[in-house]
Amino acid sequence: MRRLVPLAAVLVFTLAVTAAEPNWPAFRGGAQGGVAADKALPDTWAADKNVAWQVDLPGRGWSSPVVWGDRIFVTTVETDAKLPEQKKGLYINDLNGKPQTGEHRWLVYCLDWTTGKTLWKKEAFKGEPLSPVHIKNTYASETPVTDGERVYASFGNVGLVCYDLDGKEVWSQKVSPRKTRMGWGTAASPALHGDRLYVVNDNEEESYLAALDKKTGKEIWKVARDEKSNWATPFVWKNAQRTEIVTAGSKRVRSYDLDGKLLWELGGMSINAIPTPVAGPELLYVTSGYVMDPTRPLFAIRPGAAGDISLKDGETSNKWVAWCQKVAGPYHPSPLLFGDHVYILYDRGMLSCFDALTGKPVYEKERLGPGAFTTSPWAADGKVYCLSEDGDTVVVQAGKEFKVLGKNSLDEMTLASPAVLRGSIILRTQSKLYRIEK
Q: Which phi and psi angles does 13 have, rounded to 5°?
């Protein structure tokens, strides 16, 4: 009996760890959409409070960290050349991207979960950039993805690379650079499903969705897209009827089967598509909301759609569109589905909440505080977390009542969404990487 008690304790602990995501393999955790089943996350922190470790992260990059086991992966680009200062907020008077000169080094870092020490650092590519970027963007804004055997990193207009977890290169391929709108650069992260890596490249010249063999990097199929520049990461939607690849675009939201066949499409988006879709057990949520565009929709879509499911003038729903809020879409942050509600975080520091099944507003555009918000929100244990570009995370009570519970400051610019797992928040700022825990 005495032996059974410790065994039971180990079983309970194991189940608890399983419930609290053991891995965070992709942007926003992939299918998790920024939600962590974790009751041990800290509510308060600062640079010197509730921090397991912080380490300097050289170079520039706004990719998110991803985690598998005791390894944290993150990308960056280093250069000895002088770079323009990155500023916060909107850039209405400085919209065109600028070319960067001098040798750049595109890097993949692997850090130890427990200590933050660098386990390995690999140079994926080296050279002078062949395309410009927005002053707020970087050449390492795409989040890598991992399957526990390898880590796959996309560097947009430069190329893709694959390493095993010990840092040995498995394959690498360069990409022919293509012009982006106003020279803003790229940002869409790759998605992984089964043995395939899915890459969207929406640009001004030749947009496409491609499926690559994850083991070799070889192209399995490629479909042309009638799109110009977009920055939304493709979303693998596993619903009750099938698995599909959903891509947000400024002309159309399009969904493809695993062989690249178009399943359905939906018009009525904003002129910029940046947020990544998210799905629950019943509906898929897709949105876009460029601040200068009067069209800023938030759609909820039922599984099984086929053909053109666009709403007609005056409609807010049809057979496949469960509901639509036509001016609720955010510019940068992706939507957050948590419990019975969809949360929308706006760049100018406001939060809205909608009933996930009906689309009925619960509350709209409640003020979080000063500053700009680009990072996608995340949630756990009845709380919604909203991180500003100033490095301030506003913690909001989840549910029908809007209530700010607190604010935590790191006092440094950040645009990267964190990894949230095992009682920790792995958070990237402009120059550092933190593991925050109680």
A: -65, -40
Q: How far apart are CA 248 and CA 294, in angstroms?
A: 18
- With 80 as the cut, is the pLDDT of residue 162 above it? yes
pTM, to two decimals: 0.94
Q: Which amino acid is at 3?
A: R
Contacts of 231 (CB under 8 A, 6+ apart): 184, 186, 187, 188, 202, 272, 273, 274
Distances (CA, A) of 187 to 112, 290, 416: 26, 16, 11
pLDDT, residue 87, reads: 78
Backbone phi, then psi, for 167, in 5-degree steps?
A: 95, 10
Length of the chain: 438
